[in-house]
What does this fold into?
Amino acid sequence: MVRVISVEMERFPIAGTFTISRGSKTEAEVITVTITDKGRSGRGECVPYKRYGETMEGVRAAIEAMRDPIIAGIDRTALLAAMPAGAARNAIDCALWDLEAKLTGTPVAVTIGAVAARPLETAYTLSLAEPEAMAAQARANATRPLLKVKIGGDNDMARIRAVTEAAPESRIILDANEGWTHENVEANLAFAAQHGIAVVEQPLPAGKDDILRRIAHPVPVCADESVHAAKDLEALVGLYDAVNIKLDKSGGLTEALKLRNRARDLGFGIMVGCMVGTSLAMAPAVLLAQDADFVDLDGPLLLARDREPGLVYRGSLVSPPDRMLWG
It folds into this structure.
């Protein structure tokens, strides 16, 4: 039987509106790749991201351009050399992992050394809004142990104060999405420290963050937009304290594993995060995140509907994927 690949563009409505410093969205736009071989099928999902110049049509075209190598049996190692990091490679890579598991009967968790995979405590994301509205979001989720708070505007101190007062028992990740400036970053970090923030994610624009070498980090600072693949890490030593690994940035689980291991070697803390996608996109990341310091895999919790079967969430605990879903 010849390998077959299918590519599908799908949309899943978000429950309400998801807002960060760069804008708002009301649906998750995803691309699903299915690779079938010997009667078994493997799936992978990616989320094209405009911040990195990706569009649904462009990512689909990049996947379609790999049709012949995929049908010919390209493996994950060769895929790393054949495609750049990004959403398109992620969907193919994760589909190949899933297909391999289906063909061999060996779960991905076993292959990557996550045999005793366990439920993980994930952050739950609060959208950027005015302080009073963010306080209401925090109050409604104050029983969750870890909140990720989107900031990155002119009134962030008021937002920080409002959220920490509304959810005093929750640990809080602040995600500025590159929204701070050289003029306010020191004061904002100091204010975050005063309010017990656990970590601040990507305060400054990627490539314009060298000031982080010269200022105090009273709260650990985590790179997101500044890191995609393992090759990026050396330049971040002394700049950031942790890195956020996302499969859509790294271009799949294969590179993400390399990135995680190299980051540990260099002394970085690890966050495993996501774009807003379905359980199919989160499934490989849950296995990757088994030893992470912070887990931010709440994408399906933000959707009005998810795939069936999906990941099992109990409060803020997300369980490893059933093999019917992935892996």
